[in-house]
Amino acid sequence: MPDTVNGLPLHPLVVHVVVVLLPLAAIGVAALAVRPSWRGRYGALVVVITALATLAVPLASSSGEDLEHRVGDPGVHAELGDTLIWFAIPLLAVAVALFWLHRRASRPAGRPTGTSGKVAVLVAALAVVVAAANLVQVYRVGDSGAKAVWGNTPAASAGHGDDD
Questions:
Q1: Which of 4, 18, 92, 146 lies 20 to 30 angstroms, CA to CA, from 113?
Q2: Banded model confidence at residue 153, pLDDT cuts 50, 70, 90
Q3: For 40, how many CA atoms within 13 A lie in the half-sphere containing its CB?
Q4: What secondary structure does DSSP assign to 133-148, as a single string?
Q5: Per-residue pLDDT averaged across 114-133, rounded?
Q6: What is the β-pairing status of strands 8-9 and 4-5?
Q7: Do residues 17 and 128 lie in contact, with contact meaning Cβ atoms separated by under 8 Å?
Q8: What's the rounded Cα separation, in Å, for the pair 36 and 121?
Q9: Which of 35-39, 68-72, 96-100 bottoms out in mean pLDDT, i.e. has the lowest?
Q10: Mean pLDDT (the chain, rounded)
């Protein structure tokens, strides 16, 4: 895989796919969990977005390793980035489970029984927890990446001295 596109490092480009799609997927999964009526209409879309986000995570990690060879070790950011896949995979699993449970319950012979309803509630609760964990981890990875690039200096004041 090339490590640049038009001279720009690939990592920041791929990272933006993760930064947009993974939180969008997490919000979508949480929405499906709390609004079961949306599972039929939006479930497949949420699964596709979650799958794309999950596939983008290893691409971001790989391109980050390539960039690391060029600019140096980003420290905590690399360590946190390597953990993100272990958040994305469970998110994909609960997205698929919510969609599958809806499809199963929608079949004429698959009317929910007491046990099926309890399983659906359990999966929905787990989905909300997993979605929240993904949002927190995306923030942590992104924040550590920003600090690796910019340090603790806010970007707006970077490069401005006391010339005023």
A1: 92
A2: low
A3: 7
A4: HHHHHHHHHHHHHHHH
A5: 91
A6: antiparallel
A7: no
A8: 10
A9: 68-72
A10: 89
Which amino acid is located at 83 in the chain? T
Cα distance between residue 26 and residue 132, in whole Å: 7
**Span between the terminal Cα atoms of the chain, in Å:** 46
- Cα 28 to its chain centre, rounded Å, is 11
Give the integer Cα–Cα distance in Å for 101 and 55. 23
Summarised one tens digit per residue, pLDDT across range 127-140 is 999 999 999 999 99
Note whether 95 and 27 are within 8 A (CB).
Answer: no
Helix, strand or coil, per DSSP, at residue 14: helix
CA distances from 148 to 16, 20, 76, 130, 142 (A): 16, 20, 8, 27, 10
Predicted structure pTM score: 0.86
* Contact present, 53 and 19 (Cβ < 8 Å): no
Mean pLDDT lowest for which of 72-76, 112-116, 157-161? 157-161
Q: Which value, to the nearest 10 degrees, does the dihedral of the CA atoms of residues 96, 99, 102, 103 take?
A: -90
CA distance 136 to 83: 12
Q: How far does CA 34 lie from the centroid of its chain?
A: 19
